[in-house]
Amino acid sequence: MKETVKKIQLISMISFLAAVIFLLIFILSLQFKPKSKNKTPEQQERLILGFSQIGSESAWRTRNTQSIYEAAEENGIQILFDDAQQKQENQLKAIRSFIVYQVDVIAFVPIVEDGWDNVLQEAKDAGIPVILVDRQINADPSLYAGFLGEDGIEEGRRAARYLVNKCKNRTDEVTIFEMSGTENSSVVRDRSNGFREILSAYPKFKIIHSENGDFLRSRGKEIGDNLVTKHFYGANRHGLYFEGTKIDAVYSHNDSMTLGLLDSLAEHNINTKDTIMISVDAEQKSIDALTEGKLNCVVECNPNLGPKLMELVKQIANGETIPRITYNSETMFTEDDDFSKYEPRGY
Ligand code: GZL
Ligand code: ZN
């Protein structure tokens, strides 16, 4: 009898040890398998996109982010999203974490044009393709697969063509005050250059000052406050002045800064009926200001890049090359439009 009990104990000890060893091997195998093998069957085809967004500085940016999330959802693409809070170093960290995680594709909005070569080389060495979204960079083109976004130069040209047409019967000088966006960003360079390219053919246009408003409503308000308190001459409360010169037109690189300027004009009860106001983005609040007669022209910059981005992600994941540049369709709104035809902007 005793013998039998001993045998049973021995057998159960061996089978327990075998189970423990099997479990250990299974757990260890999970640790060392590359990520892609860990996926369940339904996840196997789910692409993973690492996306670094610059922040939420404007309604435009918020809509841009929403569009990307919505499209990822619709396309069954898993998104690792990072909000850089307007700091390039946070974007560099996020991109490096996407590389470690071995995402399938990286896409990012480069807040400024320079400083991306090293991190893009690391992504290239890791075999992870990169798509630039919304803004462009100064880097070796072989370090990224392509760009998707707006044609900032054409947006600047549109603003200038509107102004040229608006002033076609004026023979005197037309003075312009420019509010520019985030310094060293490609979109500011493009919107400035496109605007100046068209005006260069008409000597009567003079850009008398350009101020950096960093695409922020609060900065647009400050710029307005300065114009009204430091540069305002005379008590007629009509129009804006810079260093004693009347400002005939304001060209603002985005609606947030424009709306900030309008906040200041309202606060200081300044009438700018005869100041030509031109803005870029076309968020709902600026279209409302246009229909209320506070703005004359709003150039659209289309934030809805999500659907196109996911198409490009899937093309790349299938080993296809993507176009070096993919522009979004854009239009322009002016005081001469039939406002009843306007659709809600959605942001
Ligand atoms: C333009 C985009 C700009 C928007 C601003 O493509 O980069 O950044 O015009 C946003 O509203 O802040
Ligand atoms: Zn004030």
From TrEMBL:
Range of residues in the leader sequence: none
Residues of the Periplasmic binding protein domain: 51-320
Pfam families assigned to the protein according to its UniProt record, in alphabetical order: Peripla_BP_4
Localization in the cell: Cell envelope
Transmembrane segments: 12-32
GO molecular function ontology, one term from the record: carbohydrate binding
Entry keywords, A to Z: Membrane, Signal, Sugar transport, Transmembrane, Transmembrane helix, Transport
Cellular component terms per the entry's GO annotation: cell envelope
The keyword GTP-binding is assigned to this record: no
SUPFAM superfamilies according to UniProt: Periplasmic binding protein-like I (SSF53822)
Family, as annotated: Belongs to the bacterial solute-binding protein 2 family.
Name of this protein: Simple sugar transport system substrate-binding protein
